[in-house]
Specification:
Elements: H1 4-41, H2 43-46, H3 63-68, H4 82-88, H5 104-115, H6 131-138, H7 144-153, H8 156-180, H9 185-212, H10 220-247, H11 255-283
Helix pairs in contact: 1-5, 7-9, 8-9, 8-11, 9-10, 10-11
Amino acid sequence: MKFFLPLTVLLLALASFVRAADDPAEGVKAATKVREIFEAKCLDCHGPELPRPKGKFGYVLDLKRVADNPDYIERGKPDKSDLFKMVEDDEMPGEDANVPPLTRDEKDIVKRWIELGAPDAPQVAGETTSAAPKTAEAKQLMPFWKRLLRYIGRMHPVSTHFPVALMFVAVFAEGIAWWTRRDSWLQTVRFLVVLAALGAISAAALGWINAYFASYVGQAAPILKWHRWLGTGTAIWAVVCAALAMIHECREGTTERQRLRGALLLGAFLVGVSGFLGSALIYGLDHYAWN
């Protein structure tokens, strides 16, 4: 009996040692499977060969780099890892991807990989990708109307230039009206603001369609959220500006004209911030950094 306790401790220590010895092998196996999953399900949007991979996340097969990025992975804690959360909630792959979401087994493999500390997978010499045939086969899963809608949504970046330019030119025209004190400039301002409002509504609608098919991870995910809602608010405010310009007479020196000018200045500011966030989705928040 006196040897029971030491023997128990010894057996537990031996079991822990055996388990620790197995962990590296399990980690390599899990990492290899995860890289195969990412190769099949993620290259469509985050492939290294893409000129502009979504979310600036074009290194999905570099597991070490992915695991070292705290925006994506918190080692040992899948529930706190944004990448796993998006995979678990079927947010990635996104609706615009030509592949189906991860299966339950694939999600469990990714989860186990993170629990093991997100180890790297060894590269195999002469390895070829099998993602291409899977992607081609998966294209048939998306119906024609959805592919058409996705294509229409891609017009969003082009559509934003129209209201952006018109809103800023409207502010410039109103500045000339203030400087010259001529009411004749109001007709120009009205024309510009009404067109800007119509263009803003169109751009916002296309933006929502485009965002539905988008998949962004890490820091890009909240940027997309702010850009989408701020852009919608900007479109609504552009309509307010158009209403102020059209409904009231807005003669020079009146309160209505001051309200219009204030609304135009705020509208131009909102347009600028929305545009900055939109470009940040492609180039990052530091794309205006002086370096």
